[in-house]
Amino acid sequence: SQQGEEDPQALSIQEGENATMNCSYKTSINNLQWYRQNSGRGLVHLILIRSNEREKHSGRLRVTLDTSKKSSSLLITASRAADTASYFCATVSSGNTGKLIFGQGTTLQVKP
Amino acid sequence: DAGVTQSPTHLIKTRGQQVTLRCSPKSGHDTVSWYQQALGQGPQFIFQYYEEEERQRGNFPDRFSGHQFPNYSSELNVNALLLGDSALYLCASSPVRGGEKLFFGSGTQLSVL
């Protein structure tokens, strides 16, 4: 079963705009990760935020985590056509490290 | 340095058949996990192998089984295939068992007719 829900399911923006995706989850977590998937192939790890962290940055990516609301957001700034992909959040539960539970993903289209 | 490699890339089987998918982890990684991704869904955890043993298992029937070899490579076997087994099967490796970031292969697209 899926741990979380992502919102929106699909997002279409123009190049240069910012893209924000949200993820909600249900159980206590050890960490939350974001992955990107191009054209239904392998996933690529983007960023990991631990349960005791509130915000993390990596290049044009900014991730926030609110454990009280059991939610996270991924912001991609100054988007590029190459950012077109599906984005998934994945959680590692506090009591069950070793497996990732993925959300259903947000499909992002960046128009040139 | 090769990443995670999976074979075959695509596979077509008929109902009731058996299939074996293969995975070689990234160099230096000893833990392999398998995920099933149905069309339009997020990946679902099947199981994880470490030290040649199944360490964790998701909510999948016994028709799904696996193996890890001494060189850390792994196989996923599915018996008595059902139409619903059609999916992208992803292998992921990591250097530790503890839920840090995973490195994924490009997957095997299995179609069951």
**Average pLDDT level of chain A:** 92
Broad structural category of chain B: mainly beta
First-residue to last-residue Cα separation of chain B: 37 Å
Shape annotation of chain B: globular
Number of helices of chain A: 0
- C-alpha geometry of chain A: globular
User: What is the oligomer described by this structure?
Assistant: heterodimer
- Average of pLDDT of chain B: 94
The first-to-last residue Cα distance of chain A is 36 Å
Q: Most extensive interface: pair and counts?
A: A-B, 26 and 31 residues
What does this structure look like?
The complex is a heterodimer of chains A (112) and B (113). By secondary structure, chain A is an all-beta fold. Chain A contains no helices and eleven strands. Chain A has strands spanning 5-7, 10-14, 19-24, 29-37, 43-50, 55-58, 61-66, 71-76, 85-93, 96-102, 106-111. In chain A, the strands form two sheets. In chain A, strands 2, 4, 5, 9, 10 and 11 form a six-stranded mixed sheet that branches. A five-stranded antiparallel sheet of chain A has the order 1-3-8-7-6, with no helix packed on it. In chain A, strand 6 and strand 7 form a beta hairpin. The model of chain A has no long low-confidence stretch (mean pLDDT 92). Chain B has 113 residues and is mostly beta strands. In chain B, strands 2, 4, 5, 6, 9, 10 and 11 form a seven-stranded mixed sheet that branches. Chain B is built from no helices and eleven strands. The mean pLDDT of chain B is 94. Chain B has strands at residues 5-7, 10-13, 19-24, 31-37, 44-50, 53-57, 64-68, 74-78, 87-94, 103-104, 108-112. Chain B is 0% helix and 50% strand. The A-B interface holds A 1-2, 30-31, 33, 35, 40-45, 48, 88, 90, 92, 96-105 and B 4, 31, 33, 35, 37, 39-45, 48, 55-56, 58-59, 88, 90, 92, 97-107.
